[in-house]
Specification:
Layout lengths: L3 H32 L7 E10 L8 H10 L4 H4 L2 H11 L3 H7 E4 L10 E8 L2 H68 L1 H34 L3 H12 L1 H21 L7 H26 L10 H7 L4 H75 L7 E12 L6 H26 L6 H10 L4 E6 L22 H12 L8 E6 L6 H14 L4 E5 L23 H6 L1 H4 L1 E2 L6 E4 L8 H5 L2 H13 L2 E5 L8 H5 L5 E6 L6 H16 L8 E9 L3 E4 L4 E4 L28 H6 L1
Parallel strand pairs: 5-12, 6-10, 6-11, 7-9, 7-10, 11-12
Antiparallel strand pairs: 1-3, 1-4, 2-3, 8-9, 13-14
Helix pairs in contact: 1-13, 2-6, 4-6, 6-12, 7-12, 8-12, 9-10, 15-16
Amino acid sequence: MTLSVVKRYLIAFDQYKWVGLATLTVSVGVSGVVALQPTPPPIYTAFGKLAYRRPTVIFSSTTTKIQQEGQEITKDMLLDRMVVEAAAKKVNVSAEKLADDVEVKMPSKTSDPSALIQVSYKNTDRQKAEAVTEALMKEMVARSQTINTSRLRETIAQINQRLPKVTEELRETEKKLEAYEKREGTSILAAQSGVLPQAIINTEQQQRQLRLQLGGIEAQINSLQERLGLNVEQAYVAQALSADPIIAQLRVQLFSIESQLKILRSDLQEEHPKIVELLKQKQAFEQQLQQRQSEVLGGNGVAAPLRSADRIRVDSSLDPARQQLAQNLIALKTQRDMAQQQLKGVEKTEEQLRREHAAIPNKQLEQARLAQQVALKKSLYDKMQSALVDAEAAVAETTGSLTIAQLPKTKDHESSKRGLPVMLAVGGFVGLLLGGGLIFLLGMLNGKFYSWEEVRAALVEKEVPILAVLPEVLVFDSYGDEMPLALEPNSPYLEFYERLRTNLRRIGEKPVKVVLLTSAAPLEGKSFSACNLAIASARSGKRTLLIEADLRSASNVESLKIAADPLAALEPLHYYGNMSECVLLVPEVENLYVVPSPGFLRQASAVLESSEMRRLFEDVRNRFDFVVVDSPALSECNDALTLAPYTDGIILVARPGYTLSSMLSEAADQLLESDDEESSKSPRLLGAIINGADIPVKFRNDIDEWEMPVGAIGDGAIEVRSRRLPQQSKPKTSTSLSDRRSQ
């Protein structure tokens, strides 16, 4: 099998052979013109050499650095515009011409002491070549010294420019460190000397002592409360009331009145004036008692609690011994409050000391960070000061990095002229290479597929199922202008279309009944494939209908040995509305019917979208077992997409040598995108068939059995190739169908 690249090149050579021949002719002509040119005058080349200068006495490191950088001088630096213009001015030569004719060859290793830079200049005058080269070399040496000096001055300028900022940053960092040490230095020093940990230990000891003291006070308070039967607040009230002489006097008076009332009530009633008078006195004394209690306990009665007179008399009835115990209880309560307050203060102090102790590492780190910044800034400052002093000292030591090692010398450069036969041979060889490459490039750029393998790879990449690969079809002279169809029952091509039909039956859960064939562009064989697919279906016993839905070109039913209605184009809607008129029986193929195209219609889209066309598809779906619809190419119109809702799916036809990769990709994307839509009317891409493939086809006869690849069929164009057949049945080849019609 021939490689696809070879096929592509052979087809491209057949198409663009005149381009290759023109390229070969031009190449040979140019070589002949070059060979006939007169011999040019001799050219003299002056060669001079520059060496790298290495000073013997160096006191500063900057000088060493400058010299090392000077050894890294490049070719562009040596051929600087200023160097070329200065040399050209000295020798009175054009600077542009000097730049074009001079050549500088740099050494591979500049570190080698023997490394030399070669400077050459070509001119027809020997003395002129030497003078120009010498002037150029001197300017290069001067340029080297200028570069070194400018680098040194640039270094000093950069140091002087950056030094004030570095000095300012150093001073600011030093101030930050000084301020931080003033603020946090005491605590850091206390932690380092052990004072802070000792203070924490002392506070812990104070807390233990205060807790012990509080424990003793709490024990005494509890004991006194048990003995008195009063808590601290009650003891304070009772002691205060019992110690007040006015309350004691009021109690005596109340006691006296109550004694009198007790005596009188035994003889008198409650309404007696004496009893009423004593009751009023008692009430007055009780009010005075409450008022005095408020004054004693609440500071002139402002915040005194409201108590009954009986309760006041009970609370103020402490004897001197119990009053002493109450005073002791109150004193212990005061001591307890003081101890608790001291304990809280010590705990707060301890917490503060511990926080300070915990922050000591961070403070030390911050101090170390600031000190490190100061050290870094100081180091940078010292380095810059040192570099500045070193650079200023290097001013006196800096020299150029180049020196003239060898003065220019000329060498004759004779022009050579090749003979005419040699130049023509070279031109022919170059022409063959250029012509062949140009033909191959044009074949690659035209965007066509030149083998069915390339078409299959493109379809696989687009994830389009390949339903069949159909062979090229051999054309006999007896066909005339008709499309050569596989009408014979024993045609070797029917098995390929039978395989296509069976592949269609296996698609999906429901068998495909109405299929539409289209292509990305014309001349890809969709009409031929549609006819043969219908013939293969009819041969298998299926009642099959072929609908020619291409209303923009003439009908091909003459190839089926029937004639189309010439009046159908006048009233196409009436034509499609009457099935008895538009459906014709093919006489040579049993079970095959065809709806011929009326021919070219100006309103083709309107006819395809009409209700007559819709009813036609609905009727034929019920009356026929299999329907094949032939539609125009997608690049010409959208008729295929208009008819797609009436069908069960679309088959995309491609043909090597005619199908463009861009158009096939665009058509596949368009149909696949429509297939993804969730609409019942969206077209369904069933797959693709590759038409016109150079695959073997088996021919059989009574004498011999043989196989051969055959010619290709397109829409209205038949490509034919001569084949060797057995003498009994060897067909005669013809030109393409389009060529016949033109003849």
